[in-house]
Design a protein that fits this description.
By secondary structure, this protein is an alpha+beta fold. 35% of the residues lie in helices and 35% in strands. It is built from 6 helices and 7 strands; from the N terminus they run E-H-H-H-H-E-E-E-H-E-H-E-E. The chain has helices spanning 16-25, 27-33, 36-39, 43-58, 102-117, 132-140, and strands at residues 6-9, 62-69, 72-83, 86-93, 122-128, 144-155, 158-168. Helix 5 links the parallel strand 4 and strand 5 (122-128). The relative contact order is 0.15.
C-alpha cells in the first residue's frame, strides 16, 4: 500500500459537494459521534456550513482545514474554542479514507499550526469513551488522558461520556 499524499487546505465552497458526498455515504456511523452529520442533508447545507466557517476563520474564532488526500477532499480538521491559550480539536474522515493513518498525520499538521502559528499552550481532544478509533488517534499522537467527563457529548440517544486528552506545547515535537 502506498502512503497517501495528505494536504490541509483552506475550505472552499467548491468543496461542498465532495464533502457532502462523504457525509451522506457514511451518515449512520458519523452521526453516532457527530450529531451534525444527521442534520447535514444536502450539498446546500454543507455550503452554508462552509460559509459560516469562513466567517469564523476571518474573525479568528476558528481554524479549519479540508483534509485532502491526493488532491481529493477526505474530511475536515479544526481548532476551535480558543480561550486562555487553549484550543479544542475536532476532526472527521470519510469512510474510504480510514485506517491509513490520515487523521494521525493531519492531527500532527494541525498541532504544528496550533502551537506555532496560533501560539496555543495546550490542545484538547474529546472522544466518546466508546469511540475507539478517535481514542487511538489521540493515543498514537501522544496525547495525555486527563480524565472522563460524564454525559458530556450529545448523541442521538442522549449523552455519552467523553475522554479528555491534551497535549502541551512543551510536549510538541515537530517532525
Amino acid at each position: 500500500m502506498c502512503t497517501p499524499n495528505i494536504q490541509l487546505k483552506d475550505p472552499k465552497i467548491a468543496d461542498a459537494a465532495a464533502l457532502y458526498a462523504l457525509i451522506d455515504q457514511d451518515r449512520t456511523n458519523l452521526s453516532r459521534w457527530l450529531p451534525w452529520a444527521a442534520t447535514t442533508t444536502s450539498t446546500a447545507d454543507e455550503r452554508i456550513f462552509l460559509r459560516y466557517c469562513q466567517g469564523q476563520m476571518a474573525d479568528k474564532q476558528l481554524w479549519l482545514a479540508v483534509i485532502g488526500v491526493d488532491q481529493q477532499p477526505a474530511g475536515m480538521i479544526d481548532l476551535h474554542e480558543f480561550k486562555d491559550g487553549h484550543a479544542d480539536i475536532g476532526y472527521w474522515l470519510g469512510r474510504d479514507f480510514r485506517g491509513q493513518g490520515i487523521v494521525s498525520r493531519s492531527l500532527a499538521m494541525a498541532e504544528n499550526i496550533g502551537f506555532t502559528r496560533l501560539k496555543c499552550h495546550k490542545l484538547e481532544l474529546l472522544a466518546a469513551t466508546d469511540n475507539w478509533p478517535s481514542r487511538h488517534v489521540a493515543e498514537r499522537n501522544h496525547y495525555h488522558q486527563d480524565g472522563i467527563l460524564r454525559q458530556h457529548i450529545p448523541t442521538r440517544d442522549g449523552y455519552s461520556d467523553a475522554v479528555v486528552y491534551s497535549k502541551l506545547k512543551s510536549e510538541f515535537h515537530p517532525n
